[in-house]
Amino acid sequence: xxxxxxxxxxxxxxxxxxxxxxxxxxxxxxxLVSELIDRFACELLVAxxxxxxxxxxxxxxxxVVANDDDIRKxxxxxxxxxxxxxxxxxxxxxxxxxxxxxLSLALDGVQDPGNLGTIVRIADWFGIxxxxxxxxxxxxxxxxxxxSTMGALARVQMHYTxxxxxxxxxxxxxxxxxLSGNNIYSETLESNGIIVMGSEGQGIGNxxxxxxxxxxxxxxxxxxxxxxxxxxxxxxxxxxxxEFRRREVQPVQV
Length: 254
Fold this sequence. Notes:
This protein has 2 domains: 4-88, CATH 3.30.1330.30; 96-249, SPOUT methyltransferase, trefoil knot domain (Alpha/beta knot), CATH 3.40.1280.10. It is 32% helix and 21% strand. The chain contains 10 helices and 10 strands. Strands 7-6-5-9-8-10 form a 6-stranded parallel β-sheet, with helices on one face. The chain has a 4-stranded mixed β-sheet with strand order 1-4-2-3. Helix 6 packs parallel to helix 10. The radius of gyration is 20 Å and the shape is elongated.
């Protein structure tokens, strides 16, 4: 049985203040917890016997065998599943010297938890191993963000840092998505570098934009057609990442 104090503790992790205080985050759902449990230290696992029967040996600090009522009381979801878990936040260190050896994503002020989670999922799909966020981005450990990563958080390292400082020291191409940029389909794209995406409302800030080495634009189709003003940041990220990866196997013809 799940105690009232444990229910209160789990519920408190909806708020960043308590996630930061305890150094943990909450994940819910059969597939999500299964993805994360081998990647992050698990401090508390609350699960039905049916879910536990599908797992091997579980390395958890505290295990509570739960019933429907236990999970319903503790869950933040409208439709709780069979398991929820409290994981310890990883202590990952950003290595600026490694940035030029691979492709990375940097986010300048992406504030919607759903967009951030979806971008992490996109990074995972396209084999981008790290996402670097400005301090004013949404918290990756917000339960809504964790849910929207669909388990990609297990494979993508997350960092929060001052982007201008980082980009000034970057010894690699720095690409950025701007409405005033050059057509991405005719630009030269390297397989290594940093792709910067801006916030939902303001795009890339002026200080970060001044540090871009390549400015990219996704043209609408057909050209001249009166379409939407811009794309959702997660959708734009997906298009740009796909074009970078496509170039690796099919270079653009100039």
